[in-house]
Amino acid sequence: MPVIDRVRRSVDVMFQAAMTIGLMIAIAAMILARMPG
């Protein structure tokens, strides 16, 4: 069943991308929160 493997792999890639983007947004929010004004 190659279709299920392909879907599972794409879901893993999307999950890793979402985690990376969320981490970058969290770091950017912390940096912006420390800036004055």
Brief summary of the model shown:
It contains one helix and no strands.
Cα-based radius of gyration, to the nearest Å: 16 Å
Taking all residues together, what is the mean pLDDT?
95
SS-based structural class? mainly alpha
Assembly form of the protein: single chain
Broad shape: rod-shaped
| Residue runs with pLDDT of under 50 for 5 or more positions | none
User: What's the tally of helices?
Assistant: 1
Compressed to H and E, one letter per element, the order equals: H
User: What's the helical proportion of residues?
Assistant: over 70%
Distance between the termini: 56 Å
Number of strands: 0
Describe it for me?
Keywords: Membrane, Transmembrane, Transmembrane helix. The chain crosses the membrane at residues 13-33. The protein has 37 residues and is mainly α. The chain has 1 helix and no strands. The longest helix has 33 residues, at 2-34. The radius of gyration is 16 Å and the shape is rod-shaped. The termini are far apart.
Topology, please?
Elements: H1 2-34
